[in-house]
Amino acid sequence: MLDIFRGLKNLIKVSHINIDSPVFRLHYSVTVMLLMAFSLIVTTRQYVGNPIDCVHTKDIPEDVLNTYCWIHSTYTLRSYFRKKQGSEAAYPGIGNSEGKTTDRKEYKYYQWVCFCLFFQAILFYTPRWLWKSWEGGKIHALMMDLDIGICSEIEKKQKKKLLIDYLWDNLRYHNWWAYRYFLCELLALINVIGQMFLMNKFFDGEFLKFGIEVIAHMQEDQEDRVDPMIYIFPRMTKCTFYKYGSGGEVEKHDAMCILPLNVVNEKIYIFLWFWFIILTILTALTVMYRIVIIFSPRMRVYLLRLRFRLVRRDAIETIVRRSKMGDWFLLYMLGENIDTLIFRDIMQDLSTRLGHNQHHRVPGIKGEIQDA
Q1: Global pTM value
Q2: How far apart are CA 69 and CA 75, in angstroms?
């Protein structure tokens, strides 16, 4: 079984270069790994058993009946869910339909669970793929191995000068770069909310009710419990198979089918439901935090002071005052990745240069556009 999941280890591999937030990493790392693992689990028959087993007669081969009922779906009877098992009904949802088709609840989703989980994993990784394409390795290029503080003073001085020159020459031109990352975080929020909505539609609009009933189910007395999971993930269903008899007449064969895979499916989806709720809350807070950063320079100063305490306050205030939000975001990301003492020197030198040049002008075309 370990061989099956060995390929997922790259998704949780911790990179030494941070180009995004911890909440954003929950989307493309932890969540994608979980979805891929769940998709593999429901397709490994040797670990979860046959997806369906139907009680058959000698007139119908076992494989034929199982395959037919798996492909053409099964059903339960709504009126039999609340009846007492063993006396009023053979099993919750199983009984005599008496020719009533309106009482049936069809189950067609279980063939699509593995594909749905895989598609969800792709959607969760899409914002990460977009940001990696737009980021273009900028943070890695600007680091120049300055995350390792142990190097010669000459090499350190040269690299710091190169980084300060880049920040000086490109000051106020990182807004679009930063806004694209904020867009990816917004897409991540839209994605998780949309997936919760689609999950609810996938189960005929009952998943939200299902989640609420599960919480209530945990608070009920043991003797009076009615398991709410059987409404969406029934363990026992019915299937109707038609065939021609020896006389050429159509014969109806009613079968009871066990769905062992639903025991796994219900655990997977109840976990995903609550995980998506947690992820939605965390991502929504992150998006609100980004909005505050965009409109509040004071918050930018406070966050830099909170995260990088070795940098002097007056240096941070000078840089935030003379730069834009995109420059702040780039500096914050650089501070997350390079050595703290080197970052302190870079911030101080950049602040000093900004203080000595009250009218910052980028040479060339960029400077002409900025002055305009």
Answers
A1: 0.84
A2: 10
